[in-house]
Design goal:
By secondary structure, the protein is α+β, with helices and mostly antiparallel strands. It is built from 13 helices and 8 strands. Strands 3-2-5-6-8 form a 5-stranded antiparallel beta sheet, with no helix packed on it. The chain has a 3-stranded mixed beta sheet with strand order 4-1-7, with no helix packed on it. α6 runs antiparallel to α7 and α7 packs parallel to α9.
Length: 434
């Protein structure tokens, strides 16, 4: 028996006991009213008889005078006791009948009123409301779920679980701003929750160009310190190790993740393929049997570090980024290199979302790269989804701040316009952002 059913059974027993305690005095028969005058009369007759016997004590038992006195006394006693044997109706009888009827009415009232009152206090009378039925219906879409969560959190702003669920839902919809706001709120209300920390790291990384350096990886480490087997945290940590060129650490983390995943799940097959790629010296997601392009998260594709110069797919773009000698003295040791593939419009201007993004340390320049769907920012914006005659620009930028947004003083370079599948592309960073 589950605790909730045990509690409900206990409450039912207590309710029946209370109901019985209240109804018994109302339902039991009224006690008969005893007329004390009968007992008094008998006591008086007994006293008179004793006096008579005392006065006749000098006479023999068979004396005529004795028999006559006792006969006379018996006749008088019979005459006095006869009215007490069959009591005449009194005014008390109608009152007793009325009391019985009132008792039954009160019992019926209590029998229905008490359970109704208890239900109103401790039950769910709102369940008969159409609005309640609607609120219990499963949401038909993520949009409806988000709308319900937003309404609920207006009334319950301290609901950490609600904020966490809202953040994950917004993250799934690609709304990074609202997702970050909700997850930060959840992390403030419920610090030390591994799931919230991992989700927050994922959202920050997506906002910053799928970069895990800095706060995201610190949040991931906090999550793993709380729960060493947390799936998303293990996936993110492994992806970060790949970007750092630590294949052995990534293999260890993703192998641990495989122990937590259902063996036949798509994610398990995907992670297993990534591990095989790393063991074979390939970049994760480039092997022939890899079923996907991401280690189970939206934030951290493990591309961009230690990439091979070999082409990985017909639509991928392979090349090399170098830094102009004139700008080498301006290279900050902590700077970050971004390599971005962008589609351009008829006038040669970048159009739409980035098709692929690599982020790595600028100290690795010159850097050989392969841009493909593994670094896609969105399933809707990928190199493989571009028409064969699409024009693509590959832009390289060195950011001293490490931020994905362009800042004054960043070092810039751009390739010539190419088509998907271009090879041996050269990108020279030779300009400074104003």
């Amino acid at each position: 028996m589950t605790p909730i059913f045990f509690l409900l059974g206990l409450m039912l027993v207590l309710a029946l006991l209370v109901l019985g305690y209240v109804l018994w005095p109302l339902l039991r028969p009224a006690p008969a009213v005893i007329d004390p005058s009968g007992e008094i009369a008998r006591d008086v007759l007994r006293a008179r008889r004793d006096e008579l016997l005392a006065s006749l004590a000098h006479l023999p038992d068979d004396a005529p005078e004795r028999k006559a006195a006792l006969a006379e006394f018996a006749a008088q006693a019979q005459e006095e006791l006869t009215p007490l044997a069959v009591p005449a109706p009194t005014a008390e009888s109608p009152r007793r009948s009325l009391r019985a009827r009132l008792g039954l009415g009160a019992a019926a009232l209590v029998m229905f009123a008490l359970p109704a009152a208890m239900y109103l206090i401790a039950g769910m009378p709102e369940a008969v409301s159409p609005m309640f039925v609607e609120s219990q219906r499963a949401p038909a879409s993520v949009d409806e779920l988000v709308a319900r969560l937003q309404d609920r959190l207006k009334e319950q702003p301290q609901d950490a679980e609600g904020w966490s669920l809202l953040g994950r839902s917004e993250l799934a919809r690609g709304n990074l701003g609202p997702a970050l706001e909700a997850l930060e709120r959840a992390n403030t209300l419920r610090s030390g929750d591994a799931a919230t920390l991992a989700d927050l790291a994922d959202a920050i990384a997506q906002r910053d160009g799928r970069r895990l350096d800095g706060r995201p990886i610190e949040l991931v480490r906090q999550a793993l310190a709380i729960d060493p087997k947390h799936g998303k945290a293990l996936a993110l940590a492994g992806a970060w190790e790949v970007t750092q060129g630590n294949a052995a650490a990534a293999i260890a983390l993703w192998s641990q993740l495989l122990e937590e995943l259902p063996a036949e799940s798509d994610q398990a097959r995907q992670i297993a393929a990534f591990v095989d790629d790393l063991k074979a010296g390939r970049r994760p997601g480039t092997g022939p049997s890899t079923p996907g392009t991401s280690p189970g998260t939206g934030a951290a594709p493990p591309a961009g570090a230690g990439t091979s110069a070999a082409a990985t797919s017909p639509s991928s773009i392979q090349g090399r980024v170098d830094l102009s000698p004139q700008l080498r003295d301006r290279l900050n040791p902590n700077a970050i290199l971004f390599i971005v593939a962008r589609a351009v419009d008829a006038e040669g201007r970048p159009s739409g979302a980035p098709l692929a993004v690599i982020r790595t340390e600028a100290t690795r320049l010159p850097f050989e790269f392969v841009l493909d769907d593994a670094q896609a920012m969105s399933p809707a914006s990928r190199l493989s989804a571009q028409p064969a005659d699409a024009r693509i620009a590959v832009i390289a930028r060195v950011s001293a701040s490490g931020e994905a947004a362009l800042r004054s003083g960043d070092l810039l370079g751009s390739s010539e316009l190419v088509k998907p599948g271009a090879r041996e592309l050269r990108v020279l960073i030779d300009a400074t952002a104003p």
